[in-house]
Specification:
Layout: E1 6-17, E2 20-31, E3 35-39, H1 46-54, E4 61-66, E5 69-70, H2 76-82, E6 83-86, H3 98-103, H4 118-130, H5 146-159, E7 164-168, H6 176-193, E8 196-200, H7 204-210, E9 213-218, E10 221-226, H8 228-231, H9 234-241, E11 243-249, E12 256-262
Parallel strand pairs: 3-8, 3-9, 6-7, 7-8
Antiparallel strand pairs: 1-2, 1-4, 4-5, 9-10, 11-12
Helix pairs in contact: 4-5
Domain ABC transporter: 8-244
InterPro entries: AAA+_ATPase, ABC_transporter-like_ATP-bd, ABC_transporter-like_CS, P-loop_NTPase
Keywords: ATP-binding, Nucleotide-binding
């Protein structure tokens, strides 16, 4: 893991949708080789924050910096060479072949006159292999299961080969085997290839196991940020999710896991 300056940083970031303020006062850094997990209850602004970090939505205040420069200073094509963003739900024509979908990730690198070169073909093949869909390159998307389609969309982001990867619920629709495979892949991309990864997760055990740091969003603000051991405390989890949590040690792996119970003091369902 490198210790150079941050690959991405925000300063006093705010974002609104219409007249509603969704995020305010967000200060974050993610370094090359780091995996930063965004956690928090539904509606706390995780997806909105990822869209702002990707340049899809403009902040209403504050700044996002990509390396040493403001994100807003990058033309869209240059930004797409540096940031790959995989949204939570993405629509694509059902008759599109899996390989064609993944090849869309190479558009930022395409020659001005079009065409797919050997480098892009190799990148597409490698991305399919990484998500376990190398056999499905010629299969239409409408013949995939929900989990397979999710992995195909992830492969499109991987084919982009950007040094910064932003993932919104990458394990959504996946069974436990493929959830673990995706998170191991994310970990390998960061440690072996030096990519910076920011991802939103609901599964706190996955977040604790595979993320270097966690940022807890609560009512659009940053409630806590630090290592999983520092952040996943009973007090923080109660404030963020309204649940009672107990930390236990797995008898075989020695890893810390969380047991939850509903806070009976809460009156809402």
């Amino acid at each position: 893991m490198t210790t150079t300056g941050p690959a991405l940083a925000t300063r006093d970031l705010a974002c609104g949708i219409g007249r509603r303020t969704v995020l305010t006062g967000i200060d974050l850094e993610v370094r090359r080789g780091d995996v930063l997990g965004l956690i928090g209850a539904n509606g706390t602004g995780k997806s909105t924050l990822l869209r702002v970090l990707a340049g899809v939505r403009a902040p209403s205040a504050g700044e996002v910096r990509l390396g040493e420069e403001p994100l807003a200073s990058y033309p869209a094509r240059d930004r797409a060479r540096r940031i790959a963003f995989v949204a939570q739900e993405e629509a694509a024509p059902s008759d599109l072949l899996v390989g064609e979908l993944v090849a869309l990730g190479r558009l930022p690198h395409a020659r001005s006159w079009g065409g797919v070169d050997d480098t892009s073909r190799t990148a597409v093949d490698e991305a399919l292999r990484l998500v376990g869909l190398e056999h499905a390159a010629r299969v239409p998307l409408d013949q995939l299961s929900g989990g397979e389609r999710r992995r195909a969309v992830l492969a499109r982001g991987l084919a982009q080969q950007a040094p910064l990867l932003l993932l919104d619920e990458p394990t959504n629709h996946l069974d436990i085997r493929h959830q673990l495979a995706v998170m191991r892949l994310v970990r390998r991309l960061s440690r072996e290839h030096g990519r910076a990864v920011v991802l939103a997760l609901h599964d706190l055990d996955l977040a604790a196991t595979f993320c270097d740091r966690l940022a807890v969003l609560h009512h659009g603000t940053l409630l806590a940020c630090g290592t999983p051991d520092d952040v996943l405390t009973p007090d923080v989890l109660h404030d963020a999710f309204g649940v009672l949590a107990t930390r236990v040690t797995h008898p075989l792996t020695g890893r810390t896991h969380l047991l939850f119970s509903h806070d009976e003091r809460e009156t809402h369902p």
